[in-house]
Specification:
By secondary structure, the chain is mostly helical. Helices cover about 70% and strands about 0% of the residues. The protein is built from 11 helices and no strands. It has helices spanning about 1-5, 15-45, 55-70, 75-80, 85-100, 110-140, 165-180, 185-215, 220-255, 260-270, 280-305. Helix 2 packs antiparallel against helix 11 and helix 8 (about 185-215) packs antiparallel against helix 9 (about 220-255). It is globular. The two termini are about 15 Å apart.
């Protein structure tokens, strides 16, 4: 009975890679579109001084909706879709590193921790320049006074360019002010945020899934248990890494150069509570994200199983 309840992990060598990547792009795009408004709100909450603009997550949501409409919740989204590349790089690195580490250790926690941290390192190297631009776009509208760069209006119409015109506008300003290095502003802070986040998330995900499997009825589908474990792991990882995420957002949006100095100033101005800014928005966004990611990712792996293995697995 206990053996039956163990949740089987589909490893890299079990997958049909063509199916895996085809379905993966669609899944990643759907997830990003679903959670993007919460990401935008989190960024504005983290960058504002005290509660100068919004008093909390829901206050920010309704104020942005009233002042900027639904489009305001998706500022910078088109640029952010380029993180599809980093998403595929993350998945590939995670699976390959798991396979490599398994040669030296069969401990699932060790494999998940090392693979998660490695995958985040690769993904952030691709993501940071995209984040720098998309975060500047996120801050336009009600939050534009909090950022270094504002969209320049068309001299003839008085209106700012649309979509990719806005992107070119911001990219040009970043390059003019900081050169190529400007697109990697906050890179160290991002690594210090997302490598631990990823390294913590995967071990806790597998831990919570196994614990739930011991408590659940024997006929409970594994996917339901995994969908419950995902948000628990996400909340744990978000709470642990949120202080660094606040620092990362300020470094990237405000154009700071020192992670340590940004951290010190945050503590000085807003105390330890400043380190929790955006945490509720982060957990709110990470909960549905985790559910969608887990259900999507585990389903993706099952759909991508090599045909000869389909009937050998108990779900």
């Amino acid at each position: 009975m206990q053996q039956k309840r163990n949740i089987q992990i589909i490893e890299w060598e079990d997958l049909d890679k063509r199916k895996f990547y085809s379905f993966g792009v669609f899944m990643t795009m759907t997830i990003r579109a679903t959670v993007y408004p919460a990401t935008l709100i989190r960024t504005r909450l983290q960058v504002q001084k005290g509660k100068s603009l919004y008093s909390g997550t829901f206050d920010a949501f309704f104020k942005i909706l009233r002042a900027e409409g639904v489009r305001g919740l998706y500022r910078g989204f088109m640029v952010n879709t380029f993180t599809l590349i980093s998403g595929q790089a993350y998945i590939t690195t995670y699976e390959l590193v798991r396979k490599y580490v398994s040669q030296y250790s069969e401990d699932n926690t060790v494999k998940s921790l090392v693979a998660g941290g490695s995958a985040s390192l690769v993904a952030q190297s691709i993501t940071v320049p995209i984040d720098v631009v998309s975060q500047q776009l996120m801050m336009q509208g009600q939050g534009q006074h909090l950022t270094r760069f504002q969209l320049r209006s068309n001299s003839e119409t008085g209106k700012s360019a649309k979509v990719f015109g806005q992107t070119r506008n911001i990219v040009a300003q970043i390059f003019a002010a900081d050169g190529f290095r400007g697109f990697y502003r906050g890179y160290v802070a991002s690594l210090l945020t997302y490598i631990p986040n990823s390294a913590v998330w995967w071990p806790f995900y597998h831990f919570y899934a196994e614990q739930l499997s011991k408590l659940a009825p024997s006929d409970c589908p594994h996917l339901i248990l995994q969908a419950m474990a995902g948000p628990l792991a996400a909340a744990t990882a978000s709470t642990v890494t949120n202080p660094m995420d606040v620092v990362r957002a300020r470094v990237q949006v405000e154009g700071r150069t020192s992670v340590i100095e940004t951290f010190r100033q945050l503590i000085k101005e807003e105390g330890c509570l400043g380190l929790t800014k955006g945490l509720s928005a982060r957990i709110i966004s990470s909960t549905p994200t985790a559910i969608v990611i887990v259900v999507g990712y585990e389903t993706l792996k099952k759909l991508s199983l090599r045909p000869e293995l389909v009937d050998s697995r108990h779900w």
